[in-house]
Design brief:
12 helices, binds pyridoxal-5'-phosphate, alpha/beta, 37% helix, seven-stranded mixed beta sheet, Aspartate Aminotransferase, domain 1, four-stranded mixed beta sheet, Aspartate Aminotransferase, domain 2
Length: 386
């Protein structure tokens, strides 16, 4: 079905941060399959884990024990400070699990019609519940009736959430991205997540973080909320967890970890041996190579380089970043930049209409990071004069 616009290029092969099209032309990947291939393409550790597991056992279902899944859960809760994991196959499914936890938790508290606070300009997925949670009419339009039970507040506005707390008695949780990804790399003021944590504690609400895009070292930490010195009750992860092999997880701690019991949720594919082995390899590489710290460094280098080089660009209003989530705010619709960048051998994305979004792999060398900046600056120059 034509749910995506006509592609500009077909890629055939990848190696590290490089992609090769069907004509053999080389591109530097500054998108990583939308924050997925954080270790770059064809990473040898992931390739070896997949090949070995594919030749051993791919799938058995969750009716039987899966040692790799238990090991992955153990390691994920260790790096995140959470306690329990539910495995699924995508980000939207991880958020569906979070929303089911919120509702079931609400019912346990005696709330008949539990509601979740969500934010304007947020993105949480394309299933019916997650598109209803999403703060973007374009994602929802045409799919009404929306799933009920959401209360919306402007992103970054603690007073608005406090007002919801005063006026509504049926709220049981907050679901929020630490940085708006699809919404345009919008970074809230320091203290925002800590403020939400405080409100949730005061109200007895669950704080549920969607770290699907920000997580897995992308932000310069394992998870972006570490910058705020807080912990969520529920956290969804996906995207980079399998470096391209579909896998998602909903992590929970404290009372939220005990909400879903036997038979209350499930997934046929979720947490199968193949996906879990890929994710275990990803965690090992991220840990051994200290990719969170490296992402912080690389993000400074790239965003710093871009800020300096684009300071006088007539159409650039701002360069912002948290680790390797980098946004260049243009003063007008900037979709045309995607093709201009491809002409320079650079893969980028434009989101929220006018924001160039860079999500490069975290395994770039310093030289490759500088090359990324140079290619983008050339594409941006063409955008200034076209
Ligand atoms: C990508 C994304 C999702 C949806 O993930 P899918 O794997 O496409 O279902 C949800 N939330 C955020 C913040 C995302 O970036």
């Amino acid at each position: 079905m034509p749910t995506y616009a006509n592609p500009l290029v077909d890629f055939e092969r990848g190696e590290g941060p490089w992609l090769y099209d069907s004509a053999g032309r080389q591109y530097l990947d500054a998108l990583s399959g939308i924050a997925v291939c954080n270790l770059g393409h064809a990473h040898p550790a992931v390739t070896a884990a997949l090949a070995e597991q594919a030749a051993t056992l791919v799938h058995t279902s969750n009716l039987f024990g899966i040692p790799a899944q238990r090991e992955l859960a153990k390691q994920l809760v260790a790096v995140s400070g959470m306690e329990q994991a539910f495995f699924c196959n995508s980000g939207a499914e991880a958020n569906e699990c979070a929303l089911k936890i919120a509702r079931a938790w609400g019912h346990q508290q005696g709330v008949d019609q539990p509601a979740v606070v969500v934010m304007e300009r947020s993105f949480h997925g394309r299933t019916l519940a997650t598109l209803s949670a999403t703060g973007n009419r374009k994602v929802q339009a045409g799919f009404e009736p929306l799933v009920p039970g959401f209360r919306r507040a402007p992103f970054g506005d603690l007073q608005a959430v406090e007002a919801v707390a005063r006026n509504e008695s049926d709220v049981v949780a907050v679901l929020v991205e630490p940085v708006l990804g699809e919404g345009g790399v919008v970074i809230p003021q320091p203290g925002y997540l800590a403020g939400l944590r405080r409100i949730c504690d005061e109200q007895g609400w669950l704080l549920m973080l969607d770290e699907i895009q920000t997580g897995m070292c992308r932000s310069g930490r394992w998870f972006a909320h570490e910058y705020e010195g807080i912990r969520p009750d529920v956290m969804s992860v996906a995207k980079a967890l399998g470096n391209g092999v579909p896998i998602g997880a909903c992590l929970a701690r404290g009372p939220a970890a005990d909400v879903l019991g036997a038979g209350s949720h499930g997934s046929t594919f979720g947490g199968n041996p193949l996906a879990c082995r890929a994710a275990l390899a990803v965690l090992e590489v991220m840990q051994n190579q200290q990719l969170a710290a490296r992402a912080e460094q690389l993000g400074e280098r790239i965003a710093g380089g871009l800020s300096a080089a684009l300071a006088d660009h007539p159409r650039v209003s701002e360069v912002r970043h948290l680790g390797m989530l980098i946004g260049i705010q243009m003063d007008r619709p900037a979709a045309a930049l995607v093709e201009l960048a491809l002409a320079e051998g650079l893969v980028i994305n434009v989101t929220a209409g006018s924001v160039v979004r860079l999500l490069p792999p975290l395994i770039l060398s310093d030289d490759e990071a500088d090359e990324l900046v140079a290619r983008l600056v050339r594409a941006a120059a063409a955008f200034a004069t076209d």
